[in-house]
UniProtKB/TrEMBL annotation:
It comes from Microbacterium natoriense. This is O-methyltransferase YrrM. PROSITE patterns: SAM_OMT_I. GO terms for biological process: methylation. InterPro entries: Cation-dep_OMT, SAM-dependent_MTases_sf, SAM_O-MeTrfase. The keyword Repressor does not apply. GO terms for molecular function: O-methyltransferase activity; S-adenosylmethionine-dependent methyltransferase activity. Pfam families: Methyltransf_3. SUPFAM superfamilies: S-adenosyl-L-methionine-dependent methyltransferases.
């Protein structure tokens, strides 16, 4: 396949595309969604994906490959390819079998990556991760300049690789934000849905200070073991209760026991259960308590009312629940960075 590097002036980067025979250049890809067809020229008629702009969002055409139909890469590597970084990054994806994910991608990218010869039902934004390298660079700049990560925090963040969801922990600047929210609100009691390696838990435990308490729910014992190690290493293990099991059941147990209200609640577990977690949270907090819900943008899919993704549906349901609750003041923020395009909801009980 011949390759042509062409500038993308609107994006400020480069993308790599196959060069079509002149007779093919007026064809459009019939499989692409209407919004993409104006820019979906068929560059290579031999390819099942036809090399169109839409399908190249979910497939990386690896240099020296005969067609892009048999080599489908991950969203992260596609973004790097389109941003003008070396196209060979696409070759690092694991194409060995249907369903394999790129081990170099962030967890959010792994979850969304396409697999062999599969085309998503819904369109993804054009050049979805075109700015990803710049986002990561900015994240790292601010983290180095402003985030006071000691060795214990670095170890907690990096130990996410030993959990059931590698690289799914919050970024350093996000962890610092959570700690600041707890400190600004004077939180002494924090509840967390979803522990993983305990990175955000360390931030909360340090924020509540001596005499404060953090309760965190974790479904997997493997993750809880890693988290406890990190909490002890950070010197805050005595401030944290790691409860293993269903978060919904654990929350209900706290409600049944009539525990003291929490000042801040962080919801960062399975997204389809967000409405359940919010309902429990409202019973475990007081007026003035702060509620933070992570991963609510879902690469922009949250605005798609027709989405069949249960994670998107869970986010939209919790947004509806917050909007209908007149005892909550709330806003949502989009974020970009090392964790891709996502965001969070911050709410406060009146």
């Amino acid at each position: 396949m011949n390759l042509l590097v062409a500038p993308m002036t609107a994006r400020g980067g480069l993308f790599v595309r196959p060069v079509a025979p002149p007779s093919d250049r007026r064809h459009r890809c019939a499989q692409a969604p209407p919004a993409f067809r104006l820019v979906s020229q068929v560059y290579d008629m031999r390819s099942g994906f036809a090399g169109c702009r839409y399908h190249r969002q979910v497939s990386v055409s690896v240099p020296n490959s005969e067609t892009s139909a048999h080599h489908v890469g991950c969203a992260m590597c596609t973004g790097l390819l389109y941003s003008g970084e070396t196209p060979m990054l696409g070759a690092e994806c694991d194409f060995a079998s249907r369903g394999q994910r790129c081990q170099n991608a962030a967890m959010s990218d792994k979850q969304e990556s396409a697999v062999h010869n599969e085309v998503p039902e819904e369109a993804v934004p054009a050049n979805r991760y075109a700015s990803a390298p710049a986002w990561r660079s900015v994240d790292r700049y601010f983290a180095a300049a402003l985030v006071n990560e000691d060795a214990a925090l670095v170890e907690a963040r990096e130990s996410g690789a030993r959990t059931t969801m590698p690289n799914a922990e919050v970024a350093a600047n996000q962890g610092a934000l959570l700690g600041l929210l707890a400190q600004i609100g004077g939180a002494r009691r924090v509840l967390e849905f979803g522990t993983l390696a305990g990175y955000s838990t360390v931030w909360f435990a340090r924020a509540v200070g001596d005499g404060g308490r953090v309760v965190t729910f974790e479904l997997e014992e493997q993750n809880a073991v890693v988290a406890r190690e990190n909490l002890d290493r950070a010197g805050v293990g005595d401030r944290v209760d790691v409860i293993v099991g269903s978060a919904a059941e654990s929350a209900q147990a706290l409600i049944d026991h009539g525990v003291e209200p929490f000042d801040l609640v962080f919801i960062d577990a399975d997204k389809p259960s967000n409405p359940t977690y919010l309902a429990a949270t409202l019973k475990l907090t007081r007026p003035g308590s702060v509620i933070v819900i992570d991963n609510v943008v879902r690469d922009g899919a949250v605005s798609d009312e027709k989405s069949e993704d249960p994670r998107v549906q869970g986010v939209r349901a919790v947004v509806d629940a917050i909007a209908a609750n007149h005892d909550l003041d709330a806003t949502a923020l989009q974020t970009v960075g090392e964790k891709g395009w996502d965001g969070l909801i911050i709410a406060r009980r009146r």
